[in-house]
Every structure is written in structure tokens, then in C-alpha cells.
Design goal:
1 helix, alpha+beta, globular, four-stranded mixed β-sheet, single chain
């Protein structure tokens, strides 16, 4: 795994999708962990070696790997 990659996962949009950027390039919109792992595979990472909670590898914005729906502000 390349520790030099900069991976950013953005907050969920209104439909729960999260933009994924690797080294400044938007790879797409992930609707869940499976989509994210596919994007990372395309970026030459082995999905079997990726831990989604690895803060040194992935910068999560607007919630961590368990957050896949928008914050509606409702309780």
C-alpha cells in the first residue's frame, strides 16, 4: 500500500453519496464502503489490505466510515 496517496472522502450529499478524491483527482461518488473500496482498487490499492478506519490513509470529512447518509439535523 502506498502511504504517499492522499485520499479524501467528503461528507454525504443529500442522497448519501460521498465524493472520493485521491491525489487531487475526484474518482467518483461512493454510495457505501464497497464503492469506496472499488475506487481505491482502481487507484492501485489492494482492498484486502485497506482499513477504512486508517486515519493515516484516509481523511474522512463529515463523518467516518460508518456515515453514509446526510445529517438532517433531526433527532
Amino acid at each position: 500500500m502506498s502511504p504517499d496517496l492522499r485520499i479524501v472522502v467528503y461528507p454525504p450529499d443529500a442522497e448519501g453519496g460521498r465524493r472520493v478524491r485521491v491525489d487531487g483527482e475526484i474518482l467518483g461518488r461512493a454510495l457505501g464502503p464497497g464503492d469506496l473500496l472499488e475506487f481505491l482498487r482502481r487507484a492501485a490499492l489492494d482492498p484486502d489490505d485497506v482499513r477504512l478506519d486508517d486515519e493515516l490513509l484516509i481523511e474522512w470529512r463529515g463523518g467516518g466510515p460508518a456515515v453514509w447518509s446526510p445529517d438532517t439535523g433531526e433527532e
